[in-house]
Design goal:
- The chain is built from 11 helices and 2 strands; from the N terminus they run H-H-H-E-E-H-H-H-H-H-H-H-H.
- The protein starts with 8 loop residues before the first helix and ends in a 5-residue tail after the last helix.
- It has 2 domains: about 80 residues, Winged helix-like DNA-binding domain superfamily/Winged helix DNA-binding domain (Arc Repressor Mutant, subunit A), CATH 1.10.10; about 130 residues, Four Helix Bundle (Hemerythrin (Met), subunit A).
- Helix 6 crosses helix 10, helix 6 crosses helix 11 and helix 7 packs across helix 9.
Length: about 230
């Protein structure tokens, strides 16, 4: 059995400060309390706090200014992929347009990595898609399959940046996927997508793979709006 290592004090402190920033306890462009006061509030030593602040500064949450108070950054403009991943793991702190913006971003990049994947590894992608032709009509199954497909497409593309970006949403993807695939139309459309992408891979037609992926990514955004506009059960 593999045990998950407990978080270090600096990691816990970092997580608590991220939550406080996202919750608005420390708004954008405000300043954190003095180091001694903040360490006392958090119940940690000053060296632990300094380590946590250095990690936050590295990712774009805060700006450490020597001789001045630590500023809370506009993390949407000054943050990096670590900020995006942190927000993806905290659904309660996501703005209303976070998921549509994420789907729109995928709409831009997915056709590119699908093209490269079929160009460089058509047989591998075809073999993968052959296993997707008789899926159970279950939203959770489709959510997992869709994640596996996109991750393997990024890997096969030969560009690890695609994979690193996608992996930032590893925890969020199944959650939104299960909601998205509650729509029968979304499952049907993905079945067609898997068939069309399989045909493209068998032909080694990277341009066609790009086109069919772009088409389904555009449709995905429309289906998401449909899924989220449905009334929640009482």
């Amino acid at each position: 059995m593999e045990w998950e290592a407990p978080k270090k004090p600096a990691e816990l402190t970092e997580s608590r400060l991220v939550a406080a920033i996202l919750e608005g306890d420390f708004p954008i462009d405000s300043h954190l309390p003095a180091e001694r006061q903040l360490a006392r509030q958090l119940g940690v030593t000053r060296p632990t706090l300094r380590e946590a602040l250095q990690r936050l500064a590295r990712d774009g949450w805060v700006e450490i200014q020597h001789g001045k108070p630590t500023r809370v950054c506009n993390y949407w403009r000054e943050g990096n992929l670590a900020v995006l991943a942190a927000i993806a793991q905290r659904p309660e702190h996501q703005p209303s347009d976070f998921i549509p913006n994420l789907l729109y971003f995928r709409q831009i990049v997915a056709p590119a990595y699908a093209h490269l994947a079929v160009e460089y590894a058509a047989q591998q992608i075809a073999k993968l898609l052959e296993g997707y032709q008789n899926l159970p009509d279950d939203p959770a199954v489709f959510a997992q399959v869709d994640w596996d497909l996109h991750q393997k497409l990024t890997i096969a593309s030969g560009n690890p940046v695609f994979t690193l970006i996608l992996n930032g949403f590893r925890d969020l993807y199944p959650l939104l996927g299960r909601r998205y695939f509650t729509l029968p139309q979304a499952r049907d459309y993905s079945r067609t997508f898997y068939q069309d992408l399989l045909a493209s891979a068998r032909q080694g037609n990277a341009d066609q793979a790009e086109a069919v992926t772009r088409r389904v990514m555009v449709a995905s955004l429309n289906f998401w709006h449909m899924a989220t506009s449905r009334k929640e059960p009482q």
